[in-house]
Amino acid sequence: MAPRKKKDLVTSEDPHQQLLNFIGRQPHLKLIQSVGSAGVTKSWKIATNRRCVPSFKAPLLQLYHADSDHHQCHGRYTLSISFYQGFYRWRWRSRRSPEKSWDQFLGCSHGLILTPSSFLDLTQSFLDLTIMLPSWDAHQVPIRSATLSSFPVDPNGCNVMAITGCDSPAFGVSRVDCLTERRWCYFGALEWSKQDSTLIDPNDSEQQLMKFTNVVGYSGKFYALTLQGTLAVIEEVNSQFHITKLCRRRAVPSVPSKRFTEYLLESGGEILLVFLICRKSVMSVDHVEVLKLQLGDELSWIKMESLGDRTLFAGINSCFSVTATQVGCRRNSIYFTHLSKDSWRLYDMETDTILPC
Known about the structure:
There is one protein chain. This protein is mainly β. 4% of the residues lie in helices and 38% in strands. The chain has one domain. It is built from 2 helices and 25 strands. Strand 15 (231-237) and strand 16 (240-246) form a beta hairpin. The chain starts with 14 loop residues before the first helix and ends with a strand.
């Protein structure tokens, strides 16, 4: 067999990131409704000696890292979507400081892209709105994802939360102050207030403290998902942040699976949880589920049967929602990539089928 030429090798850029870059640089369309935090892949861990765990409830969930090398897939990525014609915006990046590029993001919240050092608005016509964040020692404790509680000009105030995926610190919160002078708004973020986890995860059979892997901000509150699938509402009470409510139902797929990838995002005023599920093989997604959080006195998850005029895109590092008729793609569907797959795939919620793109 002839050796593969270098030009046939795929680049290291995530195809989902390419798509996000393409959509994010069309400010006049307001295409992206919201972008969820990084996708978290979980696998089931069965206790080997159940006699040691008398209060055993369900198999433990653990983060899956073994196939991280498969993110660099072979072959060329393609996505068969015809977007409406628009304009491109370019953001200058210095080779000496690539970490300051806007595409090194931790997520997107309320239309603003969050990076390790700032969050910025690329929808401004002439000048990007950039708000600097306080420094965080990512070498000691990395940030898994970040989100805003509301838009920065919210009269009730705005906070940015960063979660770590560990219990000490479990998360950090920075207050964003807004000063309005005539037609201009000036923003400043205060130093991080880091907090440790103090509550035992009710869905952890080993009675470990809560470790948050996903978070989304909505209506001034934070909704954080733990490693074991417990949803917690985190609110500011007397200038301190506390867990004020827990969802009784464990957020896991309704079907048996070997492994799944989850995405938490806000879309159209709703908090959604997307599962890409591997039932037969850990290397292939063969089922997709979308849950919606029912808000009220008691939190609960309900399975969605339709997305309506929305389309979700789930990539390696994030998930976002768009209005299908505005973008020009297939409605009531989810486009996704997964591990060693060399192209996007399409899940049609109406027919409950997965198709190649």
